[in-house]
Amino acid sequence: MPVLISKDELKNSMEYFEKIHQVQRDYLNYWKEHTLWHKDFWVALALTILPWLIWVLIRKRGCEARLLLAGGFGLIIATWFDFLGIVFGLWHYSGRLLPTIPTFFPWDYSLIPVSLMVSLQFKPHINRFLKAIIFSALTAFIGEPFFMWLGYYTEIKWSVLYSFPIYIVIYLITDRISRAKSFDAL
Questions:
Q1: Helix/strand/coil (H/E/C) assignment for every residue in 116-175
Q2: How far apart are CA 129 and CA 173, in angstroms?
Q3: β-pair type (91-93, 153-155)
Q4: How does pLDDT run across 90-148, given as a tens digit for each residue?
Q5: Has this prediction a pTM greater than 0.90?
Q6: Where are the strands (E) in 30-96, listed by range?
Q7: Are residues 93 and 104 in contact, defined by beta-carbon separation less than 8 angstroms?
Q8: 20: which DSSP letter?
Q9: Residue 48 CA: distances (Å) to CA of 8, 88, 151, 179, 183
Q10: Is the separation of the CB atoms in 135 and 141 below 8 Å?
């Protein structure tokens, strides 16, 4: 059976891996010295934990699985877009909660999914397109600038205007997921 990847390709790939690994080691050292246990670390930790605690208190009982599925989708999409934005040099984050994840953990793993879930359960009979526009406007035009002001988020080749339609689509898809009729017993 022929080899799928040649030894030269493996060698070239390993060279890139070594460069990435060295950058990660350097960043870990920077993070330990300049972020860990500093003010921005504690704020990021609070922004990760508090939204989930609030959601536990205000969630609609009996709809947790449906909301968590929709919120989980929002988490995955937000994380993926953040990863792509960083890789393509569109923005970057400072004050990361964890040095191993290239995205802003509180935003992708807490604020986005929790705000989606709260919005979905709040007045569910309001027009979903109106709710998507409101969610997107709050997230893109208030949330992102607020994190820029705090210093956590820096736009390089991006604008909140680009984020606005993306958040609308994310909201509409999560709304559709939350309304799925396929939640039967196992």
A1: HHHHHHCCCCCCHHHHHHHHHHHHHHHHHHHHHHHCCEEECCCCHHHHHHHHHHHHHHHH
A2: 11
A3: antiparallel
A4: 998 887 888 877 678 888 889 999 999 999 998 888 899 999 999 999 999 999 999 99
A5: no
A6: 91-93
A7: yes
A8: H
A9: 43, 25, 17, 26, 29
A10: no
